[in-house]
Amino acid sequence: MVSITKDTEKEALLAKFWPQISRAAAGYENRPALSDELAQEMALSVWRSLEGFNDQCSLNTYIYRVIHNTAIDHIRRHSKISEDELDEAMLCESPTPEKSALQAQRQKQLIVAVNQLPLSLRQVMLLKLEDLNNIEMSEVLGLSEANIGVRLHRAKEQLSKLLAGMN
Amino acid sequence: MDNNEFEQLSSLWQSTDKKPMPKMDKVLKRHKRQDVILRLNLCIEMLALIAVSYLLITSALNGLEFIKLTWISFVTVWAVIIFILASRSRLDSLKQLKSQEISTSIEIHKKLIKNEIYRWNLNIKATWAFILIFIMFNITLIYQNGFELNNLLIEAVLIAGLLISIFFFVIKNKKAKEILHTLEQ
Fold first, then answer.
1. Is residue A84 very low, low, confident or very high in pLDDT (cuts 50, 70, 90)?
2. Into how many domains does chain A fold?
3. Rounded Cα distance, B161 and A54, in Å
4. Is B3 part of a structural domain of the chain?
5. Which of the residues A8, A76, A77 would you substitute to probe the B interface, choosing the one with the greatest number of B C-beta atoms within 10 Å?
6. Could you give the number of structural domains in chain B?
7. Residue A91's pLDDT band (boundaries 50, 70, 90)?
8. Do A126 and A65 touch, CB atoms closer than 8 A?
9. Residues A77, A118 within the same domain
10. CB neighbours of A132 closer than 8 A, spacing ≥ 6?
11. Does B127 map to a domain?
C-alpha cells in the first residue's frame, strides 16, 4: 500500500474519523474551548501523518495512535486547572426537551467520568468505547493483550463507581 | 459492569453530539502562521543572544572595568544556558513521531516534562543568582560612586520584575509536576 498524499483522500479519511476524533478530544479535555482546539489539533496531526503511513500497521491503528499521541502532547502543554469546578459546571448545564435531555445528561456524566479516570485507564476506556478489540488496543497502545485486559477491567470498575457517584 | 451494560455505555458514548468538522484549509493556514511565529521567536532570541555576546566582546576589547565586565559575562552565560536548554526541549518535542505506540510516546513525554521541570528549577535558581549578583554589583557601585536615589528606584523596579518572574517560574514548575503526575498515573 502507498502513503496517502492526495488532499481529497486525506479529507475523506478525516471526515470518516472525525466523530472518533471529536469524542476522543472530549474524553481527554472537558473544557469546551480546549476540547474543540484539541479536536482540531488531532485532525491536523492525522492530516500531516497520513503521508507517513506505509503499512507498518493497519490504517485504523495508525490513526488512533496519532489521535492519542496528540492528546498526550496536549496534556503536556495544557495542565488542567480547577477541574472540579468545570466538571460541576458541565453537569449543571440545564438540558432541553425531556427524553433527549436525560440522554444528554447521561452523556455529559459519561464524559466527565471518563475525564476523571487516570490516564492509563482512560486510554483503554476511550478505545473500548469506540469498539476496538483487545488486539487492536494492544497495537495502538503498545501493550500486551494481558495488560490491556487488566487495565480494561480496572477502568470499567472505576467508571462504574464514578457514574454511580454521580447518580 | 457486564458486557450488556458496557455496550449500552458504548452506544451512549458514540451517540454524543457530532461537532462540525473544521475546514482543513483554515486549520492548515493557522498552523503555518503559528510556525512562522515560532521561527520569528527563535530568530529574536538568537539576535538577542548575538547582541549580548557582541556587547561582551566589545566590552572586553575596550577594557571595561572588571566589575562591569563580570556583570555582562554573567548575563551572557545566563542567557546562553537558558536558550540552549529551551531550544533542546523544543527540538525534542518537534522530532517526536505522532504515529508511534502510545506507551513509547508516554515515556518520551515523561522525559520531556522532567526536562521542563529541570529547566524551571534552573530558571528559578538562575534568577535568584542573577538578583544576588545584581545587588552585589550595585552595592559595589554605591561604595565606589556614592548613593543615588534615582538609580536605586530603577534597581528596585528591576528586582521587583525579577521576583515576579520567579513567581511565574514557580507556578510553571508546579504545573509541570502536576502534568508529570498525570502521565505517571
1. very low
2. 2
3. 52
4. no
5. A76
6. 1
7. low
8. no
9. no
10. A60, A64, A140
11. yes
- For the CA atoms of A117, A121, A126, A127, the dihedral, rounded to the nearest 10 degrees, stands at 180
Residue A97 and residue A50 share a domain: no
**Does some domain include residue A86?**
no
pLDDT at A80: 53
Find the domain containing B157 and state its range. 24-97+106-184
What's the domain range around A162?
91-167
The amino acid sitting at A151 is R
What DSSP designation does B16 have?
Answer: S
Q: Nearest to residue B74, comparing CAs of B31, B126, B38, B115?
A: B126
Q: In A, which residues are within 8 Å of B31 by CB distance? A: 44
Long-range pairs for B153-159: beta carbons < 8 A, 24 or more residues apart: B158/B134, B159/B131, B159/B134, B159/B135
Q: Where are the alpha helices (DSSP H) in chain B?
A: 3-14, 24-61, 66-95, 102-145, 149-184
Residue B176 CB contacts under 8 Å (≥ 6 apart), including other chains: A79, B113, B116, B117, B120
How far apart, in Å, do the first and last CA atoms of chain B sit? Answer: 22
Query: Which chain B residues contact residue A39 at CB under 8 A?
Result: 19, 22
Select the residue from A72, A120, A156 to test the B interface by mutation, using most B Cβ atoms within 10 A: A72
Axis crossing angle, helix B24-61 with helix B66-95, rounded to the nearest 10 = 160
In angstroms, the separation between the Cα of residue A93 and the nearest Cα of chain B is 15
pLDDT (tens digit per residue) in A41-62? 999 999 988 888 887 788 888 8
- Provide the grid cell at A7: 488532499
CA dihedral of A152, A154, A157, A160, whole degrees rounded to 10: -60
A156 to B1: CB separation less than 8 angstroms, yes or no: yes
| Three-class DSSP category at B25 | helix
Check CB contact under 8 Å for B101 and A142. yes
